[in-house]
Write a structure and sequence with these properties.
Shape: globular
Structural class: mainly alpha
Radius of gyration: 22 Å
Number of domains: 1
Length: 463
């Protein structure tokens, strides 16, 4: 009790005991120190995505198709969780930059409650699993496997919702090591349990696709447990406490001013995937299976950039709160350069060894004929995507989440889906459909640059 009172007193001071590194440390080393742990954990997450699909692909192509059809629902789940967490991260980092520690604590505490409320939403969604999968296929085996996978992922999603809010709250303080540890625990647990539950090793019953889902949620729940222990037993620059806690509508509003656009932005991705799946189904289910594989492969390229974004967002948010526009500019410049380098490497890999990449998933000759040219075409969007992602991080960090939403709407609804549909209708050529991705990314990149210029003129000029 005395320890908690001491921590609370420390956090209610108007000045921190030591300067926060986000306002003082040299920029490039600061970005590296904050981004590398997140990038590493994201790479582990990408490895989990590939390993998960690798084992599912060994069951059958129907199993891979089933998991691919459920992918948009998993994306919606992650969108709600990550979007809320980004709102928390943005608010906590800005309040710390303003030296408003009591409100930073309140935002982090609200995060736990919001995580549980988000879980209830997907508990309900899981009740309609069979109806959702049946919208896209009439193949009984695909419907059955997809239903099992979706129900398990939704019914036990409380782990990911609570953990991600704790993770982002700690990242907002500049602590990237604990969040990395949380993600590693979940991903490694998943990787270890996948083959055991899917194929029935060491006396465990063979559970096929359902086993992959069980491995996923067990990894998330274990990660949540560790996060709660770290949050309650270790000292941090923020304190989460429900003692005398009252729900504050203004805090929730501030969280979702950034979080809601992020949720919608990421949810748009799920709508896009469902739309593309519907278009691809008119050609062959193998194209849908490939599209699911593509998202697993591209995660090795995009996840490190998202990890980089996790590192630069608190830095930009903190220095925005401290009104230090020069450090904000330096952070964005370094972040963009690093992101572009990562994406260039991704393009080279996708163009040089597409057969090997698809071979990881036991690709049939038909999938190879579809996937090899598709990987080369879609990867043309990677470099403009690097600029869009880093600028979206800036928009969210300064509280302009609607800008990120606007760019995402352009990329995935206003341009990509219509372009894919028109290419399909006008050409009846599956290979040409993939050109919708670089077309959409090019125009959304231009929009990101224009919105960044607007922030410089309208907001940063006041500092």
């Amino acid at each position: 009790m005395e320890k908690n009172e001491t921590i609370n007193q420390k956090n209610e001071q108007t000045q921190p005991l030591t300067p926060n590194k986000m306002g003082t440390k040299s920029m490039f080393p600061l970005i590296i120190s904050m981004a590398v742990p997140a990038m590493f954990s994201m790479m582990i997450q990408a490895l989990y995505n590939v390993v998960d699909s690798y084992f599912v692909a060994q069951i059958s192509e129907d199993a891979l198709t089933a998991v691919s059809l459920v992918f948009p629902i998993q994306s919606l789940l992650i969108a709600l969780g990550i979007g809320t967490a980004i709102g928390i991260n943005s608010l906590v980092s800005r309040r710390l930059g303003e030296q408003n520690f009591s409100e930073a604590n309140s935002a982090a505490t609200h995060g736990i409650l919001l995580g549980l409320l988000n879980y209830i939403v997907f508990l309900i969604v899981g009740l309609f699993s069979r109806q959702f999968v049946g919208l896209f296929t009439s193949t009984p085996a695909v419907i059955e496997m997809g239903t099992q996978y979706m129900q398990i992922v939704c019914f036990f999603s409380f782990g990911v919702f609570v953990e991600v809010n704790i993770e982002k709250s700690l990242q907002a303080t500049g602590n990237m090591l604990y969040p990395m540890m949380f993600q590693l625990i979940g991903a490694v647990t998943n990787i270890i349990l996948d083959p055991i539950f899917i194929f029935g090793l060491f006396g465990v019953p063979r559970m096929s696709v359902a086993g992959a889902a069980i491995a996923t949620v067990l990894g998330q729940i274990l990660s949540m447990i560790v996060a709660l222990i770290v949050l309650t037993k270790k000292e941090h620059e923020i304190t989460v406490s429900f003692h005398h806690f009252h729900i504050n509508g203004r805090i929730i509003k501030n969280i979702y001013e950034v979080g809601l656009p992020s949720i919608v932005m990421q949810s748009i991705g799920s709508v896009m995937v469902m739309g593309i799946n519907a278009i691809l189904m008119s050609y062959t289910e193998t194209a849908v299976a490939f599209f699911g594989v593509y998202f697993k492969l591209q995660s090795f390229v995009f996840m490190p950039v998202f990890g980089l974004n996790q590192g630069i967002m608190p830095i930009i948010g903190y220095n925005f709160g401290a009104q230090n526009k020069n450090r904000m500019k330096d952070c964005l410049r370094y972040g963009t350069i690093i992101a572009v380098v990562i994406m260039v490497i991704g393009v080279i890999v996708f163009w040089t060894i597409p057969n090997l990449l698809l071979g990881i998933f036991n690709a049939s000759d038909v999938m190879l004929s579809i996937g090899v040219p598709a990987l080369k075409t879609i990867s043309l969007c990677f470099i403009p995507a690097a600029i869009g992602i880093t600028f979206s991080g800036e928009f969210q960090a300064v509280g302009k989440g609607t800008y990120s939403l606007l760019v995402s709407l352009l990329r995935q609804l206003c341009i990509l889906l219509p372009a894919a549909y028109l290419l399909s209708v006008l050409t009846h050529s599956l290979p040409l459909i993939w050109y919708a991705f670089p077309i959409a990314e090019f125009f959304s990149c231009i929009a990101s640059i224009l919105l960044h210029s607007r922030i410089k003129k309208k907001t940063l000029s006041k500092f």
